[in-house]
């Protein structure tokens, strides 16, 4: 009984496309990050601003845009899972996705396939949007599309409303009989032609009046090892499909246009362009026109197939470029009607090198076909590798310059500007060199002879290349401008918890605001762009100033003449107020008539900076800037809330009355009472605020189409309504409908007093303000008395509508209704403070025992983060972009935001830490561990080197050829890093052809009698050799010794000291500590070793493993070993006598990647991930029947992951409602993934599991799922489902989280399904799961 949650959402962008999906006003960029679809608009300078974001319950494998009938907007085709297609469109009414059709092909494709289906299918869309297809191996699903207007359709059908002025579309609901697609046709590829099998790629071709397919296939599968038997096995075929579709079925006739045989074995991908397609191979690329003529072949490297001489050969072997599956490319058709050769084809290789493919033709004859590497002079793409997608984000006005969005597996996704691309190519220098010339075409094709046998064409070739010479181009340096980026921390290869923000116990003489805090640190990326990522549990502020007060509960700052002049404090416990002079070292200001013997509720500048207004519990005072009292007003009831906006003051008193005063515009010495609407006399108001917004403009005469903001007096009533009225209201009041139930969508209407008002206040405070960094957007933020935060975003199409902000993972849960989390709001009052400029961000601070900050990056939705690790009692703006905060022990600090390499657009704050510099590039950082005693990190690296094939004698083996590129090898080492500066203070380098496979920090027992332990670093190394030599490895043990720092480098106070080293036969795959000893896995054996007092190492126990240990973890005396092919084993270690005790093993043979313990209330569970991206949970249950006394581990659940897991880490788990100090410790497992995401797995108690399971079932069954996808199927449908406990599957907290986003009515209804008091308990369960990582904060 476990629950799964994504701690961080995916950061790797896998797919991208541009078009008009939610708006017609400008072209939008749509990207996919695993299961999240994000829609961006771009500014003229290439910046990306988030428009919408949708979280789907499936792994998205591809996307495409197709036209939408009777609408200028497009539909989005989403391919997911093994073989599913969802066609959706944006619904502006609900601000969500409307599913038009869902197509599930997996079962049908599996039935006709002769082999097991691949994990993902490939989506292809006809350029004219007449059909799309999904193919998996040799099985195809063809789906006809209905695009454009049909003559038989009724012209009076409902259409989408298009607002020309705003460029927006308001979508009406689809009619039931509206058809967007035809009937699917599912068939084996042999229905196209009997010869087809082993399909490598299928693409729709351009410039055909009917859907036309090009198929690349191998009738007999071939790889490099058997090319001697079948040297040219690849074939190519072009078909035209004559589609016939009706309501019952789809059929087609096939017309074969061309066939090519005997092509190179390494060709694998087709790139459709105008008049033909480019065929990509590992060592060659070729051009085949739309008639099936192979016109040109480019040799890319020294391994190119020289035997294929059927076309013009272009020798570019000096490039030595290798293209591996799949090639990322960008193609743009010609934008110049007069110049058809203006089309652009760019190709990006795995190292992020950019290549321009020159395509010039006369008629159908390709006269120039070249591959030119663009010599980029700057470092715009230096830190990126393995591109995943590319899309053009600027208007397609010209191909000479363009803005491209490029997604990478490693490195940030970038928007880059290619300036004067064509001119950069045209400035190349040329010289001639001997080459082979194409002399003829395939005689088997008569049409080909008719098209290309004319003498004129051959003469042109001879004129261009006389005397068998080829052109060698030298391209002038090319500059790429990086415009913006999207943060990517994938792939994550290892994780560790250590102190990052809390290394220094004190800052500016006071306690570190992040004291006792641990961060998760990950190694991210590969190659040059590899770096460390600190995943922080809270925002780390920079402390600029620290003060100590004797008596303070609230503070304000008075700014005069654009300068901070006074600091005002009040102490509600002593009913006193004080004022301090900021410029005079905070000396007490004793002049003036400021009311000092009362509690100040509010004080601020007023009257355009010429007056000061002070509101105490029973009085309002107006002062000039010298604190001379001008007027005073007394109240009969205690003041509870104040809002000030020139020239108005809004007062809310305890009885529920409101009073609004306006400052005299001439003398500014008097306050006049503002008349209120009559209906307010019958209402009880809990709080009020003065704000400016245009949300009511459509109801105001003369302002219907205006964007001008109006001043609105806003109030929250006792029955949780939010009402507004203007200064000139004429007794007209507006209300925000649906807010009392916190519905998903809110809209403004004229207020009508209900017949019966039931006072039950839950809304404590509201704000409507703009959040963001450079691009600020308006949000409605609601704080409840239970501490919950609900946020709504204003609609882009209608300013009077608001939609609940959920984002990719929803908002962080900060509280709970029904007093379910009283602890969060009881000690310190929670109040929202809007700060318009906090280090460049417009943010909202939330005070309390656990303070929060609401902030938004321009490329993400607003996020709520815990702010530091200290409480905040009061807060005020300080200076231009800082804040002053007072904690519960009356210490005040001035905070600014850490902007350097920090990112606040994911679920937790991320900080990028570069270890490499311009002097040395450590390339890929592979493993990380933390030395607790010294508070230092150790990181292993792997530099890429050219492989040298050495024999046993150390000499280069016979047959090694230095004239061709070699394979790549590695040289590894260990870096000692101080987190105070993130400098490398010591390092150990190992020999070439070495790789550190594992490295961990361990407490090793040195003396069996005293049981004295010392913290050591153990590293396992594998040496890379030829296939004729047995594998070898070694392990090293290091200690950290304190030394005298180098002059001027105080952080270099520790060095690595080698304690022991041993070379062993067999590769060392993993290391692990167990019961004060350490374990080394060497090939098919594990060996437990003991360290003696003289630092010698003695083996004490061993155990044979099946094939290959992929991971090993320990907990006390227990050990789990994951095998690469045979599942995993559960062992025990006994020291008296030394022995390994087999306790159990998995029945299923997982291809294990990572393992970790899951300990819950004395039960031992195990979390295992395999190469099929499935997370398994097994349990050791010796008392259960059919387990053979525990030898067969119970398979509890198998849960599909949307990405590949690389590592797991066990951490303590926080229990927010645990009251006993003697309760056993609780743990959770944290996992890192290739897509940059991080997840956690938490064991649950029986009652908690049952409640949350019911909630999950209700949300899945009763709520609309985006794309029509079934979350239960996407997570649980795998080959192990029948082996698991079907009635106890893993719960997905990403679905449970939606419970907090539902309206009050819906979530109350769902909670009743779990029991009478379940609503209270469900909220406590959700809080407990949400706050499990607060164990990193040291205290609750």
TrEMBL record:
Q: Where along the chain is composition biased (Acidic residues)?
A: 151-162, 441-454
Q: What organism is the protein native to?
A: Naumovozyma castellii (Yeast)
| Function description | RNA-binding component of the cleavage and polyadenylation factor (CPF) complex, which plays a key role in polyadenylation-dependent pre-mRNA 3'-end formation and cooperates with cleavage factors including the CFIA complex and NAB4/CFIB. Involved in poly(A) site recognition. May be involved in coupling transcription termination and mRNA 3'-end formation.
The record, for InterPro entries, names: Beta-prop_RSE1/DDB1/CPSF1_1st, Beta-prop_RSE1/DDB1/CPSF1_2nd, RSE1/DDB1/CFT1, RSE1/DDB1/CPSF1_C, WD40/YVTN_repeat-like_dom_sf
Record family assignment:
Belongs to the CFT1 family.
**Keyword flag RNA-binding:** yes
Q: What is this protein called?
A: Protein CFT1
Q: Where is this region: Disordered?
A: 150-177, 432-458
Location comes to: Nucleus
């Amino acid at each position: 009984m476990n629950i799964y949650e994504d701690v961080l959402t995916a950061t790797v962008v896998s797919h991208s496309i541009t078009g008009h999906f939610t708006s017609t006003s400008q072209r939008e960029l749509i990207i996919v990050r695993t299961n999240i679809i994000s829609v961006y608009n771009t500014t003229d300078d290439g910046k990306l601003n988030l428009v919408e974001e949708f979280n789907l319950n499936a792994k998205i494998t591809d996307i495409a845009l197709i036209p939408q009938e009777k609408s200028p907007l497009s539909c989005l085709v989403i391919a997911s899972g093994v073989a599913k297609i969802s066609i959706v469109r944006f619904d502006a009414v609900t601000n969500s996705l409307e599913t038009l059709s869902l197509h599930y092909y997996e079962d049908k494709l599996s039935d006709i396939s002769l082999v097991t289906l691949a994990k993902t299918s490939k989506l292809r869309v006809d350029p004219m949007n007449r059909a799309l297809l999904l193919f998996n191996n040799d099985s195809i699903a063809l789906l006809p599309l209905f695009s454009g207007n049909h003559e038989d359709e009724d012209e009076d059908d409902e259409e989408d409303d298009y607002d020309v002025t705003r460029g927006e579309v308001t979508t009406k609901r689809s009619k039931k009989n509206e058809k967007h697609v035809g009937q699917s046709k599912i068939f084996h590829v042999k229905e196209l032609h009997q010869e087809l099998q082993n399909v490598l790629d299928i693409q729709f071709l351009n410039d055909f009046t009917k859907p036309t397919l090009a198929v690349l296939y191998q009738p007999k599968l071939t790889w490099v090892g058997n090319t001697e038997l079948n040297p040219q096995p690849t074939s190519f075929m072009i078909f035209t499909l004559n589609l016939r579709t009706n309501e019952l079925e789809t059929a087609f006739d096939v017309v074969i246009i061309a066939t090519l045989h005997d092509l190179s074995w390494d060709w694998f991908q087709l790139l459709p362009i105008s008049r033909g397609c480019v065929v990509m191979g590992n060592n060659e690329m070729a051009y085949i026109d739309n008639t099936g003529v192979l016109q040109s072949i480019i040799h890319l490297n020294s391994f190119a197939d020289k035997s294929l001489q059927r076309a013009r050969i272009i020798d570019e072997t000096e490039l030595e470029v290798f293209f591996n599956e799949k090639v990322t490319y960008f193609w743009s058709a010609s934008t110049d009607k007069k110049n058809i050769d203006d089309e652009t084809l760019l190709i990006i290789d795995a190292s992020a090198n950019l290549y321009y493919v020159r395509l010039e033709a006369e008629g159908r004859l390709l006269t120039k076909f070249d591959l030119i590497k663009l010599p980029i002079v700057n470092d715009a793409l230096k830190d990126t590798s393995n591109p995943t997608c590319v899309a053009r984000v600027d208007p397609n006005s010209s191909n000479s310059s363009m803005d491209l969005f490029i997604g990478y597996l490693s490195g940030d996704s970038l928007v880059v500007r290619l300036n004067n691309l064509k001119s950069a190519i045209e400035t190349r220098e040329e010289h001639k060199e001997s080459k082979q010339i194409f002399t003829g075409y395939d005689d088997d094709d008569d049409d080909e002879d008719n098209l290309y046998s004319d003498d004129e064409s051959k003469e042109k070739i001879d004129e261009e290349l006389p005397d068998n010479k080829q052109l060698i181009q030298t391209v002038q340096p090319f500059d790429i401008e990086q415009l913006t980026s999207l943060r990517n921390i994938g792939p994550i290869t290892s994780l560790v918890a250590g102190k990052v923000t809390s290394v220094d116990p004190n800052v500016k003489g006071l306690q570190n605001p992040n004291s006792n805090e641990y961060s998760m640190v990950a190694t991210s990326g590969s190659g040059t762009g590899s770096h460390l990522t600190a995943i922080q549990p809270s925002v780390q502020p920079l402390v600029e100033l620290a003060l100590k007060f004797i008596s303070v509960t609230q503070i304000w700052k008075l700014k005069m003449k654009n300068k901070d002049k006074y600091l005002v404090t009040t102490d509600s416990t002593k009913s006193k107020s004080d004022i301090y002079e900021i410029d005079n070292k905070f000396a007490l200001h004793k002049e003036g008539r400021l009311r000092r013997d009362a509690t100040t509720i509010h004080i601020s500048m007023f009257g355009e900076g010429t007056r000061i207004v002070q509101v105490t519990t029973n009085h309002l005072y107006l002062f000039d800037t010298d604190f001379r009292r001008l007027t005073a007003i007394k109240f009969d009831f205690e003041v509870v809330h104040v809002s000030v906006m020139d020239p108005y003051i809004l007062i809310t008193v305890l009885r529920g009355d409101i009073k609004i005063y306006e400052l005299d515009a001439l003398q500014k010495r008097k306050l006049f009472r503002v008349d209120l609407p009559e209906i307010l006399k019958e209402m009880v108001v809990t709080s009020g605020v003065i704000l400016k917004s245009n949300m009511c403009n459509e109801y105001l005469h003369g302002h219907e189409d205006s964007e001008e903001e109006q001043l609105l007096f806003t109030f929250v009533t006792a029955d949780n309504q939010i009402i507004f009225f203007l200064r000139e209201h004429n007794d007209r009041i507006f209300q925000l409908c649906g807010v009392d139930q916190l519905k998903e969508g809110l809209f403004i209407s004229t207020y009508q007093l209900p017949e019966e008002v039931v006072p039950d206040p839950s809304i404590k405070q509201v704000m409507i303000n703009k959040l963001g960094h450079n691009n600020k957007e308006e949000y409605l933020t609601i704080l409840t008395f239970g501490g919950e935060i609900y946020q709504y975003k204003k609609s882009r199409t209608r300013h009077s509508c608001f939609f609940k902000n959920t984002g990719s993972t929803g908002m962080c849960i900060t509280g709970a209704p029904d007093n379910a989390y009283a602890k969060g709001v009881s000690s310190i009052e929670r109040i929202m403070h809007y700060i318009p400029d906090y280090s460049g961000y417009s943010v909202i601070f939330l005070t309390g025992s656990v303070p929060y900050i609401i902030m938004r990056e321009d490329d993400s939705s607003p996020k709520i983060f815990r702010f530091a690790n200290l409480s905040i009692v009061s807060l005020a703006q300080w200076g231009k972009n800082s804040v002053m905060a007072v904690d519960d022990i009356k210490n005040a600090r001035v905070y600014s935001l850490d902007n350097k390499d920090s990112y606040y657009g994911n679920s937790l704050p991320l900080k990028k830490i570069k270890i490499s510099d311009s002097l040395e590039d450590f390339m890929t950082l592979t493993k990380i561990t933390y030395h607790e005693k010294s508070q230092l990190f150790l990181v292993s690296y792997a530099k890429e080197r050219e492989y040298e094939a050495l024999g046993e004698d150390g000499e280069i083996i016979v047959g090694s050829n230095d004239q061709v590129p070699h394979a790549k090898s590695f040289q590894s080492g260990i870096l000692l890093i101080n987190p105070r500066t993130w400098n490398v203070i010591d390092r150990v380098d190992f020999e070439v052809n070495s790789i550190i496979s594992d490295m961990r920090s361990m407490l090793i027992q040195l003396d069996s009698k005293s049981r004295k332990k010392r913290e050591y670093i153990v590293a396992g190394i594998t040496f890379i050799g030829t296939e004729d030599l047995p594998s070898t490895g070694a392990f090293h043990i290091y200690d950290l010794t304190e030394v005298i720092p180098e002059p001027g480098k105080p952080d270099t106070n520790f060095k690595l000291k080698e304690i022991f080293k041993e070379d062993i036969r067999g590769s060392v795959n993993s290391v692990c500590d167990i019961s004060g000893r350490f374990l080394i896995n060497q090939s098919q054996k594990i060996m437990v070793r003991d360290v003696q007092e003289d630092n010698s190492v003695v083996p004490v126990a061993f155990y044979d493993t099946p094939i290959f240990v992929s991971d090993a973890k320990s907990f006390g005396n227990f050990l789990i070993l994951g095998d690469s092919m045979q599942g995993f084993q559960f062992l025990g270690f006994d020291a008296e006598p030394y022995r390994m005790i087999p306790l159990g093993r998995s029945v299923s043979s997982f291809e294990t990647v990572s393992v970790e313990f899951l300990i819950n209330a004395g039960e031992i569970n195990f979390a295992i991930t395999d190469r099929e991206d499935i997370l398994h949970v097994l349990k050791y249950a010796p008392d259960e029947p059919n387990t053979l006394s525990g030898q067969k581990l119970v398979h509890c659940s198998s849960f599909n992951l949307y990405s590949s897991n690389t590592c797991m880490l066990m951490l303590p788990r926080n229990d927010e409602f645990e009251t006993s100090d003697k309760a056993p410790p609780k743990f959770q497992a944290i996992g890192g993934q290739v897509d940059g995401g991080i997840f956690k797995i938490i064991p649950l108690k029986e009652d908690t599991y049952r409640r949350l399971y019911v909630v999950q079932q209700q949300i899945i069954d009763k709520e609309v799922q985006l794309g029509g996808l079934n979350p239960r199927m996407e997570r649980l449908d795998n080959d192990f489902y029948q082996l698991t406990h079907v009635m106890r599957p893993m719960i997905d907290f990403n679905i449970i989280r939606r419970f907090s986003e539902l309206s009050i009515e819906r979530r109350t209804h769902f909670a009743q399904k779990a029991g009478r008091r379940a609503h209270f308990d469900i909220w406590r369960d959700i809080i407990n799961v949400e706050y499990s990582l607060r164990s990193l904060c040291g205290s609750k």
